[in-house]
Each structure stands twice: as C-alpha cells, then as structure tokens.
Amino acid sequence: MTETMPLLDVRDLTVEFATRRGVVKAIEHVDISVGKGETLAIVGESGSGKSVTSFAVMRILDRAGRIAQGAIQFTSIDVATASEDEMRDLRGREISMIFQNPRAALNPIRKVGRQIEDVLLEHVQAEPGNVKEKAIEILRKVRIARPEERYHAYPFELSGGMCQRIVIALALACRPQLLIADEPTTGLDVTTQKTVMELIVELTREQGMSTILITHDLGLAATYCSRVVVMEKGRVVETAKSDTIFKAPSHAYTRKLMRATPRPGVTLRDLLPEGEATPVLAPQPVDTTTPFLVVENLVKEYPRQGVTKTMAQFFKREPATDSQAFRAVDGISFSLARGSSLGLVGESGCGKSTTSMMINRLTDTTSGSIMFDGEDIAEIPAKQFAKLPLRRRIQMVFQDPTDSLNPRFTAARAIADPILRLGDLDGKDAVRARCEELARLVGLPLEFLDRFPHQLSGGQKARVGIARAIALNPELVILDEPTAALDVSVQAVVLNLLQDLKAALGMSYLFVSHDLEVVRLLCDHVIVMRNGRIVEEGATSRVLNAPEAEYTRELLSAIPHPPV
Amino acid sequence: MRDITVTGVRPVTGLLATLQHTRYVLAENPVTAFAFGLFVLIVVTAIFGPHLVPIDPLQSDTAQALKPPSARHWFGTDQLGRDIFSRVIVATRLDFGIAIASVALVFAMGGLAGVAAGFFGGWTDRIVGRISDTIMAFPLFVLAMGIVAALGNTVTNIVIATAIVNFPLYARVARSEANVRREAGFVQAARLSGNGEFRILLTQILPNIMPIMVVQMSLTMGYAILNAAGLSFIGLGVRPPQAEWGIMVAEGAAFIVSGEWWIALFPGLALMIAVFCFNLLGDGLRDIVDPQRRT
What we know:
Strand order of the largest sheet of chain A: 6-7-8-3-9-10
Number of domains of chain A: 3
Shape of chain B: globular
Oligomer: heterodimer
Number of helices of chain A: 21
Helix content of chain B: over 70%
Number of strands of chain A: 20
Largest interface: A-B, 49 and 28 residues
Radius of gyration of chain B: 23 Å
Strand content of chain A: 15-25%
CATH superfamily of the largest domain in chain A: P-loop containing nucleotide triphosphate hydrolases
Shape of chain A: globular
Helix content of chain A: 25-40%
CATH topology of the largest domain in chain A: Rossmann fold
Largest sheet of chain A: 6 strands, mixed
CATH class of the largest domain in chain A: Alpha Beta
Distance between the termini of chain B: 26 Å
Structural class of chain B: mainly alpha
C-alpha cells in the first residue's frame, strides 16, 4: 500500500460530548488513514470509541457531540469544516455506511427494489427509464437469487442475511469510494456472516473501493482485513498489518484481547489475562448412577394461522390439515448426566431456545417427555410450574443481562426475588446475608448490591443474573447464550466464573449457544441442531475436531479465526 | 474487566438521585419549572383557599351587585353582589378535587384493566378492548352528560362520569406498555423465581409502567377539570350557590352582552390557567420519565 495519498486521513481527532456531568471526550487524538483499495478494521470493545470515530468521519454525530480538535481529510475535502450541503453530497455518493441491524436500516413498507431505485435517482446514477434494470443488476451483484422476483419483496419477507445484502446493495448503489461497515454481521448467523463478509470483500476488490470494518471480533478483522487498528477507551493503541498484529501484538491491550478470544486449543483459564488465573477447582463428587435429565421425542408445534383463518375454515367447512402447524422442535431426544454440561448449538431458528424454554418449563410442550430426576416434568403445565418446589431445582441465566433485570429493582432485590418466593429463609437479615454471600460467590462487590441495573456495567449485570439463578442451589441451570451480549474480555471472566460455580456447587448446565468456540470451552457434550432436529451429537472434542455431519463442518469452517 | 461505570462518577441512589434529576430537568426546561410552580400554587390555593379569602364567597349584598373590579372586590361582584375573587379562589378546591378524584378512579379502573389486558392477552384483552371501543363510540361529553343524568345530579356522579369517559385512554396506554413487557427477560426471570402471574403483574409490570401512567394522569387532569366545569356549565352536577368555575362562567355568560364581562372572565381565566398548567406539566413529566431525553 502506498502511503503517498491516502483516501481518508484522520489526524489527531478528538470528539467531545456535552453531557449533564460536563464534557466527556469520546475519542482523543485518533490517527487513522485508509489507502485506496484498502480494507481496514477498527477493533475494540464497547465504549472504545470505534463507532464515534466513524460517525465523525460521516459527520453524523448527534447534537451533543462535536469535533473538538483534529482534521479529517477525505480526498481533497476537509470533512471537519465542509458545509452541510457538501457533506450531504459526500454521504452516499462518496462514503457509504452499513449498520448493525439491517432491518432497521430498511423502510419496512417499501419494496426493496424501489428503495434501491430511490438511492440511484437521488444521486443521479440512473434515469427513470432504466432505473429498474439498474436496480435488478445491483441485486444480482449482491448475490440475491432470482433478483427480478426479489425486487418486489418487502424487507419482512427476507431473512436477516438477505436484508443485510440489500443494505449493502443500497450502500454500493452509487459506487462510493469508501464503505464504512459498523458491525455488519453482529446478530447474523455464523454461516450468513461468512457469506456477507465475503461479499463485502469481493465487491470492495471489484469496485476498487476502500472499506473500514468496525468490529469487536478480532477473528473477523484478521480474516477479512489487511490492516487493523485497535482502540481502547477512545484512543488508538495499536495499528499494524493484520498478519503481524496477531503474531506479535505489541500493546498489552491487544495481547489481552487476543488471549480473551475463544479459539481452538486453549482452555477457559487461558482466556484470562496472564497471572489472573486461579487454579482449576476439582468438581464436587456427584451421584451419576441415576439418570438426571432424559429428554425423549420432544416436540413443539406452533399453529401457523391466527383466529381469522380458523374462522374462515369453519365457515367453509374445510377440515384443518396437520401441515398447518409449524414444528419448531421436531422430536429430539438426549440425556444429561448430573454434574456435566451439555451444549446445544445451532443457528437462529433451529429450535435450541424453544427446547431450553420447554425444559425450564416456561413453555408448554406439544408432545414428548422430559424426565427430570425420575419425574416427567413435561406433563406439568408451564403456568403451574412456577409455584412447585421443583421450580427451585431448575433455573436459568438469560441472554441479555439488561433485559433480564427489572429496571426498578436493585441488584440485591433481584437476587433476593427467588429466595423470597421459593426459599426457606426467614427475616430480612437472613435474606440480605444470603444475597451478600451470593454476591461474593459471583464476584460482585457488595457496594453494588444497592444499585439499579442502569448503574451497573454489562459484566456486573451478568453477575447479578448468575447470582439470581444460583440463589436456590439449583441442580440444573440453563444458560441461554449468557455471554452473547458481553465484550470478549468480560465473556472470558464470566465463562470462568460459570465453570468454577459448576465445580463448586455440583450443578449441571444446559448451555444454549450459537458460538461453537464457547461451547468447546465449557461443555463436555454437544448437540448440533438444525430445523428442529438433532444433526449431530457426541463428546465436544470429538464433534468439534472430527465432525461427521456436513452441517457441523460447515458451521466450523465459517468461524473466522485469527491466524495463530 | 471493565467493571467501571461509564460516568466514572459515584452513582447516587434513591430519593436524592430523583431530586437531582428533577432539579436538572427543571433547570434545563424553564417552561416545566413554570408549570410546576403554577401547580404548587393551585395545590396551595385548593388546600388553604377558604381560609385566605377576604370575603365569604356565599355572602350576597345586593347593594354591591354587578360592580366592576375595584380595590375592595378585585375581580368585581356578580348579580347577587358576591365577591368573584373569593368565589374563584374557593372554587379551586372543588374543581381540583373533582379532577383528582376522577383521575385516581380512572387510573385504578382503566390502568389496571389495561395492564391486565396487555399482560394476559386473550379474553381479558378482548373484553377490555371492546369496553374501550364501546365508550369511544360515543361523543365523550354527551356520554358524560348521559351518565350524570342517569345516575343522578351529584358531584360524585360527575367524578364517575369523567372517569368513565377517560377509561379508553388509560386502558390503551397501559395495555400497550404492558404488552411490550409481557415476554421481557425480567418477567421470565420472575416466573423462574416462583412468582405467580398475578404477582408478576403487580410487582414487575406495574412499577415499570407507572412513569408513563403518571404522565397520562397529568395530561388528563386538564381534561377532567374542563369536563367537570363543562357539566356544571350546562347545569349538571354542582348546584348554585356553590362556587365552581363552570357555573360561574355559565352565570356570567348572560351578563357579557350587557357589558359585565368580569363575571365570566375571571373564572374562565382560572379554568384556562389550570388546564394550561396540567398540560405543560404533563409534557415536562414526559421529558423526566423518558430516558431517551436524558443526556
């Protein structure tokens, strides 16, 4: 890459936000340059300022934010001082942006083809006469099958990956010189992520564009970008070629990020920063002779149509057909031994969450049995289960630590809730003492117990959720992607915590995840699901190292790995 | 570990935090501060009004009838020689009381019905929805008139009528707010903790939609006052000689043509200021509870 004339040159950029507690510097003295045809990754955890940087380049900071210092030079235009008219011309035509949630970026009541036409006409890239052909040509370019048909589709008729391709089509419609992709594949399945990223890279090369990929995923950055910028707390800590940065990371923070990223050939303890790992606990001896959890032929069906359709059928006197039910879980069977952990893996819509919701008795089953310690709990309606003594024994940690805490309850109140309802502790002091004991167990400083969720960080909220789940000493804990919303370094700590708690308390885990690398670290056995059925199951090391099913191989190969 | 809070400032909790936030919003938003001041004034007037007025509001003095505003009678006197200033002040308690009572009643009925409809769905939802639709099928003021006429001409029935016509507003807001939280993670977590559905409704859902409901209450206060005054204006509910803004406007209306404008104007102004104050306050409260507006 020639350093003579970069396409985008950011020098000493500082962005400030005016908040009620005074001015906060979101990014400080950031230097980034992107050459022509280069793909650059900006990597960092939440709050590192990576998105703010891209917003500053597009000059779409919200009202409270302003560029306090520094220069942004795009070709010959000075973005920091350009007029709003010039900027409007620049956005879309010269610099395009792709956001995280493709559905939110599309107009839900306008056909996708029309939305592409709007952009083409707006930036005078087509005449009203030929705009439709151009739009279809662009759809074909982003690998949308049957583009003539899909031209007439509405966003809700398309899958998440397809929507993101439409968004890419919108971004590339005017052949911009620079594409900024802000977490373009977060929330997409790993195989979809692979096709979307490959598409972006290929189009970048074809059109001679430059791309900035903003991501929290080091593996993704390393696989698809030539150069990587690592940001921490609003500052650039390291800039290097992607093939060297992982072999010889020079900054301590990069090393920490590298360590925390789950990858083959490491143990959970290896994810923690050097010197912070404690010895692995020996697991509690448990009785493994009796079957603990045995699931047989579990089925969940959802009716496809609503009341109106049923009424219409009633009046037409047509018999209802079986095919009208949608089988989210289609007859799966597995067993889980006491004290072990089982991973339930699959892409979105495979039925793994429905399965976990049926086992923890929040959702009724259609048929099949769930034998929990010799008792068929599938027969107990979900509505009644909440008040049974059995409830104590099966608990759950939720995916989104923010969503799963009542915003009006303090951390202590949230942890105490199951104790108050189902526990046998009497008196305020006893409950409080138990909360403090649990907080110590999950590593939550005691002074945080009286805070509300919005005053806690993501990792702290995750700890509160875990403390609540283990408050009643459950035997089975269902973990529904407990780290999906967390930064990798926090994820590393939480995963280790879960491992230690399992060993110390003799619990069994059912771990639901889309991330095979995380499952590899935490689970003894793994089940791979697709379309409500089990594709493959077995010991984790066997399934992940020598997969038998084609689908498992596909999943594994789609995971981007940093070169080691 | 990133176990630091974003602000870096030690978070304050409880009452102090709420006070600080309220002060911040009031300082940022002088209009809300003004409305808040007005609200305090109305409350003080409603509580202490009868003890503050210089002249008995019911005392008539035909020698002083229909006198324009003067140093003795600030707002003038009406056709019976009663002091309009005293009557306007004293009426605050009645009008404000009717509004508070009806808003509290409709909050209890509509709010709870709406929360239940949104949370349980199914038949509960259908029944509450159809009740709302039925009420909304009538012109609201005519419905209120009908209710008071049917139930009997008393202040209590004005309160009930005002509550009933406001029912759909509360039910709908509460329903939609409860509905989005129905499958929220913390509700599922509460089920796992062994809470029954009804307890979840009361301890998890209701506290979370309270802020929105308080805004709704403030916004409908103005309407409740207008409704009560409107009913009195056409001769329903409050009866003369009791001081009430609606009746006073009605009594004064006949004299405007002959030039005695003050009889209708001052109670009308009081009504306007009260409604204005509640509407401004409602907007301000919405800013306080809406986290999107917090920076």
